[in-house]
Amino acid sequence: MEELKQRIREDGVVLPGNVLKVNQFLNHQIDPDLLYRIGQEFVELFKDQKITKIVTVESSGIAPATMVGLNLHVPVVFARKKKSSTMNDNLYTADVFSYTKRVTNTISIDSKFLSADDHVLIIDDFLANGQAILGLIDICRQAQCTIVGAGVVIEKSFQEGASLIKEKGVHLESLARIASFAGDEVHFVGEEN
After folding, report:
1. pLDDT in tens, the chain (193 residues)
2. Sequence-ordered list of residues with C-beta below 8 angstroms from that of 77, at least 6 positions apart, any chain
3. Which of 81, 147, 177, 179 is paired with 162 by a 20 to 30 Å CA distance?
4. Which residues contact 47 (CB under 8 A, 6 or more apart)?
C-alpha cells in the first residue's frame, strides 16, 4: 500500500532495537482517513473469504481491526491483556510475550464471542516476532474457528514472525513490509537500499 509506505517514510521514527515509532498516525494519534483506507485494502485482499468476525489484540490492533469490521459490517473481537472484573471463567486464553515491553501477557477472549461457526480474519498493527498473532491463532483454534487469514499493517520482514505464522498454515497479507532499518532509515522489501 503505497500511501502507507509514504506515511511511514514521512512520519515514522526508527528507534534503537529495531523499533519503528508510528504514533503520528497509527497507534497513539490515529489518522482515521488512512485507517479507513487500510480497512478497505484488507477487505480487497480477503474479498473471496466468508468472514464473520475480525479478531485482534488490545490495544493498538483495535483501530485497524475496527476499520476492517466497519468495511465488512462484521463484529470485531479483541483479546484482552488483563482479565476484566466482568469477564467470567469461560475464556479462551494464550500466553504472549511482548519483545517491545519485555513482558508476558495472558490474552483472553470470552468464549461467547467465538464459535466453530465463525470464519475469522486476524488483524494487527505490527508483525515482528509474531507472538501476538500466534496467540490469536491459538485462541481461534481453541474455539474451533476457521481462520481465513491474518492481515498486518506493518511487517518487519527481517524478523521471524511472518515465517512462524505461515508455518501454522495461515494466509498472511501485510500492507507494508520492511526489509531493514539500515542507516536509521526504513527500507521496504523490493526497494533498493
Report:
1. 999 999 999 999 999 988 999 999 998 899 999 999 999 999 999 999 999 999 999 988 999 999 999 999 999 999 998 766 666 679 999 999 887 778 898 999 999 999 999 999 999 999 999 999 999 999 999 999 999 999 999 999 999 999 999 999 999 999 999 999 999 999 999 986 5
2. 53, 54, 55, 56, 109, 113, 114
3. 81
4. none
pTM above 0.70, yes or no: yes
**DSSP character string of 51-117:** --EEEEETTTTHHHHHHHHHHHT--EEEEBSS--TT--S-EEEEEEEETTTTEEEEEEEEGGG--TT
Give kind and range of the element (H or E) at residue 132.
helix 131-142
